[in-house]
Write a structure and sequence with these properties.
Layout: H1 2-6, H2 31-44, H3 48-60, H4 67-82, H5 86-103, H6 106-122, H7 133-146, H8 149-173, H9 181-185
Helix pairs in contact: 2-3, 2-4, 3-4, 4-5, 4-6, 5-6, 6-7, 6-8, 7-8
Length: 196
């Protein structure tokens, strides 16, 4: 009856510390960590509404500059992007970048930059897609220093996406792709594409 009255599809019960029905609550992870974990599992199975609800609730329970909250923001931005809520994703990712810089969390900052850059490439935020590459290069450097293969793979994907869009446009216009030495030195394009 409650499901119908409240317009819900599902109801989830979470055991929280201090629950008299659960004897050994001292060994449980903090409530926010359990919400975040459930949100990640929801995302992995494609339950975007569940993922955004759980991850957002976990972040809302933490102080603004809490390191755990800052690490959640790029994940929330990714989920919002996947659901098509690009404006909200942009706001969350900008907050993540600012908070991560304040805390010195280079990994969270790089993830947020990469995800915000992806949005920028798809919403034409950059005057030219090449303009996105310095941000991507910085993130790639960060991920390499940290040994973060997942972040590195995500960043490298953007270099391909940026050039895919440029090549498509060049093809439509009957043109060719050219780039600067910085781009060829980074290994994103062959040296034969270098102009000047």
């Amino acid at each position: 009856e409650a499901l119908r009255l409240l317009g819900l599809d599902e109801v989830w019960w979470l055991v929280s510390p201090g629950n008299p029905l659960k004897a050994a609550t001292r060994d449980m992870a903090p409530y926010e960590a359990r919400l975040a974990s459930a949100g990640r599992r929801a995302f992995a199975r494609g339950d975007m509404p569940g993922a955004i609800g759980l991850l957002s609730r976990a972040a809302d329970l933490l102080p603004k500059r809490d390191p755990t909250r800052v690490q959640l923001l790029p994940e929330i931005g990714e989920v919002l992007t996947q659901t098509g809520a690009w404006r909200e994703a942009e706001l969350v990712l900008k907050e993540a970048i600012d908070a991560a810089r304040t805390l010195g969390d280079s990994r969270s900052e790089a993830l947020a930059v990469i995800r915000l850059t992806w949005l920028g490439l798809h919403t034409r935020r950059f005057a030219d897609n090449i303009d996105a590459l310095p941000e991507v290069a910085t993130a790639i450097s960060t991920f390499e220093e940290l040994g973060d293969d997942g972040g590195l793979a995500e960043a490298l994907t953007l270099t391909d996406e940026a050039f895919d869009i440029i090549e498509e446009l060049a093809g439509l216009l009957g043109g060719a792709v050219g780039c600067s030495r910085v781009v060829t030195s980074a290994g994103w394009r062959p040296h034969t594409d270098q102009v000047g």
